[in-house]
Amino acid sequence: MVGTIVSAFTSVHLYRLPPAPSAGRRQAERAILSGNLVLTGLAGLLAAAFMPLLGASFAAWGAVPLVVGSVAGLHARTLASSHGDMARTAVIPAASLAVVGTALGVEAALGELPSVSLLLALNGLGQGAAAVLVIRRLSGPRPADFGGAARRRWRVLARRSGWSLVAGAANEAFTRLAIFTVAAWFGAAALAGLVAGQTVLRPATLLAGAFSAASRRPLAARRHAGDVRGFWRLLLLGGGVPALATLGLGLAAALLWPWISAWLYAGRYAGLESEVLLWTAVFVISSFWVAGLVALQALGRLRDLALAELGGALVCGAAMAPLLQSLGPQGALVAMILGGVVQVSLLARGVRRGLRALGGGAVAP
């Protein structure tokens, strides 16, 4: 959630910049990075202040560098994807995986139980170190600007960030509401069953994430070139291919669930075929949601994005309680499907408006 808030004020504005290198783009990047660093530092201080409140059972001081490193890594990934540099986008998670994996291997070799706080800290440090390298490579040895002009730009960014903050908050509510309501209503075991059905579909969702990272620069280029048809083609390809892959994997997982339950979960979580199908519908819809999200960011239509996220969250929230009452834990997934349909419909309307504003004539695919 900290990453969502900080990105709403800073990193998300990188997607609005013209893709071609220029002095103006470099100045904007430097001001955005300096604002991001200030907010990231504040987030680390707040995490440190909050940690004693958790008590001995839950306080993990390694979460402080995790917060700082994760937010820095998120900005570096956004910067790299806005430059169209997918290799450097992958450096940050790869560094985290390597550092944490090495620590786990060393602890296992020594016969020690994993240290949660240590692993959290190493995760953050790995992301942070990789983020520094990526930012310096893409923006030069002095990538941040804290001068008067940059501070004036911060105020402009803050004024433009209201809708992106609303969008981020609504999306957090939409994606996390089911976790808290199912656990509170039916207990942790019911939530575990939902998560078990979701986990097998995660590989297909990587396609949507890959489109999100790889398409931002091409979509921005088509926007600035006024290429409405090219924009639509890329957008529908990026939504349709992940959706079809998710649908295929979901149907196969539901068909093979008795074998998956026996092999992957040692016989636990039998009979989750209906949950897998519902999750499939959720992720198919989310494939088009990702495409619409990226498109509206590239078009700079943050108000339309926020209204779509807010509409989906409100529908999901309103439907959650009655559906949980009537359908049990599966009702949470039905509520997410209803909210997702509203989201995608509103996102599509926002994209049509944005492309029509480019003067490209008829924009509906």
UniProtKB/TrEMBL annotation:
Its main location: membrane. Keywords: Cell membrane, Membrane, Transmembrane, Transmembrane helix. The chain crosses the membrane at residues 31-52, 58-78, 90-110, 162-186, 234-257, 277-299, 306-324, 330-348. The keyword Membrane applies. It comes from the Bacteria. InterPro entries: Poly_Biosynth_Transport. It is a multi-pass membrane protein. It is found in: Cell membrane. GO terms for cellular component: plasma membrane. This is Membrane protein involved in the export of O-antigen and teichoic acid.
